[in-house]
Amino acid sequence: MHEHTATDDLAPDEIRLILGLRLLIARAANQGSLAWWDDESFTQHAGFLLERIFPTAPPLAARSLALTAASARHQAACPEKALHLYRLDADNRDRLALRFAPLLPIPVPKEPITTVNDLRQHLVALTREPMGYTVVRRNAHGLQIEIPPGPPGSSPLAHRAQTLAWAYLEGGPGEPALPYCLE
Q1: Which residue has better confidence, 118 or 142?
Q2: Among 39, 55, 117, 135, which is 20 to 30 Å from 61 by CA?
Q3: CA distance 14 to 21
Q4: Could you tell me the CA-to-CA distances from 67 to 7, 86, 104, 122, 129 in Å, in that order?
Q5: What is the largest CA-CA distance in the chain?
Q6: pLDDT over threshold 60, residue 45
Q7: d(CA 179, CA 174)
Q8: Which residues make Cβ contacts (< 8 Å) with residue 71, sequence separation at least 6?
Q9: CA angle 62–173–116, rounded 5-degree value
Q10: What is the DSSP code string of 28-51?
Q11: Of 42, 45, 21, nearest to 31 (Cα)?
Q12: What local confidence, expressed as pLDDT, does residue 11 receive?
């Protein structure tokens, strides 16, 4: 069996997992859900506008906008060299691997995610089991965590994405906990 390293390309199932986690957290953070940052991409009135502005693919526009808002929020809140769900690798290998991945086939919950328990249920559906981590430090809205090594043969980027996604459960409605780690 091939052993993954940080420089490996991501397998298609790992790409779907990472994008699924990113979109799930962006959906949960949306103003119609847990309201963790200022983004309305998945709200009903945004859907109304996107259908008129991007008539051929409003769901794709919503997903792209939500991911852009999530990435910008993390860049603003996390330390400069921090790794987070929307920047999994210091050399941006994840961005390179995911840049042409199609977003439309990735499922996104249609209904708002209004409780942390709802988010937990969606995370279980994607990852099958909770991921362990250690909280190192909390600040304004950031949550520095330490991520334990992944199982042998696992993708470091997929393992990091799953662990970071589980750490969002440290937040609450209107009170984000944006997890990040430092290499």
Answers
A1: 118
A2: 117
A3: 11
A4: 23, 8, 13, 18, 24
A5: 49
A6: yes
A7: 15
A8: 86, 87
A9: 85
A10: HHSTTTT--SS--TTSHHHHHHHH
A11: 42
A12: 92
